[in-house]
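Section 5: illustrative case.
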């Protein structure tokens, strides 16, 4: 059986949207594309991804409408959602290995990592990833720290062959418009001099990425770990495009 792909949406600055992207991508791949996966939330002690799962379950328990939607959705996926496991950075790889050793292992294991590179356990976990996608926004502070993070990973792990990383990509997120600004172009030129590729897909700054469930009669959800993004909301979100690009990169 093929070893699962270890994938992280990672950066060292809060506000870049790494946890939201992990949740939306995982749910899209699992519920819409039918790819078996799990997620390991080792962003200790926040564990925002696992907390999102808890909120999702509470919403489903309180709302009969949501419960019915969950039941219909899960029926096509053997009656369950994908696992989200709480972990610490030092235990994350051991947790992943336990899933990889299963008779029918998941195809992808997502890692929601802490936003720091000042922890040897985090560095070690990153070094064992197959693919790392680093979100970058047009906020100057986020932009600066994301590029710094990418440069550290590239110089200390990738170019030195001290990691298993097959691909490290920057991903524009929370961008006010779909067109690249002069600042983005200058940033991409600089990133290019570092030898780090930037994904073609640009994800817009949209309130839909923060929509966890609303409306009883016309229920819709975008950021969820128990349901896929709402079909109507997917239009213009860039998620379908970024999934296609990521799957092409990973050869799935």
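Designed sequence:
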């Amino acid at each position: 059986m093929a070893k699962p792909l270890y994938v992280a949406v990672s950066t060292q600055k809060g506000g870049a949207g790494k946890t939201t992207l992990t949740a939306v991508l995982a749910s899209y791949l699992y519920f819409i594309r039918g790819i078996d996966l799990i997620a390991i939330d080792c962003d200790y002690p926040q564990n925002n991804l696992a907390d999102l799962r808890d909120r999702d379950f509470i919403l489903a328990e309180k709302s009969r409408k949501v419960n019915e939607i969950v039941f219909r959705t899960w029926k096509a996926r053997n009656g369950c959602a994908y696992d989200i496991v709480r972990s610490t950075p030092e235990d994350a790889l051991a947790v992943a290995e336990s899933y990889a050793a299963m008779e029918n292992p998941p195809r992808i294991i997502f890692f929601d990592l802490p936003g720091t590179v000042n922890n040897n356990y985090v560095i070690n976990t990153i070094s064992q990833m197959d693919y790392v996608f680093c979100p970058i926004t047009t906020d100057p502070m986020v932009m600066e720290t994301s590029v710094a993070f990418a440069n550290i990973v590239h110089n200390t792990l990738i170019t030195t062959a001290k990691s298993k990383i097959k691909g490290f990509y920057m991903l524009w997120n929370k961008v006010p418009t779909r067109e690249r600004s002069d600042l983005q172009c200058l940033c991409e030129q600089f990133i290019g001099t570092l030898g780090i590729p930037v994904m073609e897909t640009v994800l817009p700054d949209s309130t839909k990425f923060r929509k966890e469930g609303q409306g009883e009669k016309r229920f819709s959800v975008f950021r969820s770990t128990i349901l896929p993004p709402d079909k109507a909301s997917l239009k213009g979100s860039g998620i379908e495009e970024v999934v296609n690009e990521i799957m092409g990169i990973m050869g799935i």
